[in-house]
Amino acid sequence: MVWGLISTLGVMEIQAEERSTIRHILDWVDYVAVAVEVLAVAVIVVTIVFATVTYVVGRFWNSPEGSAYNVYRARLGSGLLLGLEILVAADVIRTVAFEPTIESAVILGLLVLIRTFLSWSLVVEIEERWPWQTPRPENAARPGKHLELRSPASDDDQ
Fold first, then answer.
1. Does the predicted model carry a pTM greater than 0.70?
2. Rounded distance between C-alpha atoms, residue 55 and residue 61, angstroms
């Protein structure tokens, strides 16, 4: 009987240690998820600052307005896309580690669906075409894009 009590206490002690280890791991997973979210916000903020600064500098140094604006839009869109992808990763980490329930999986699915729609909308805005359309040639005129037309003879004369 004493031996059974000792073995039961030993099992309870091991279970307490395992719970402590699991809590420690979950704490680290939470820190990682928060770090990933902070990274996503940093990517978005740095992109906004960088794109805005380069747009303003480009406008003051004789860059055509349409060209500078298109580059600005493309940089902002790319940064937002990357930030959204990183936020989805943080949501997946948090859902899988902390709340692996049907309800949290449905919420995660809705978040991913919304962010996927936003990402898809940004891609359409950046590329100025639907995904099933063929890409335009690089030298095709687009709204706001200024083409520089030169004859081959003018290149040889210089």
1. no
2. 10
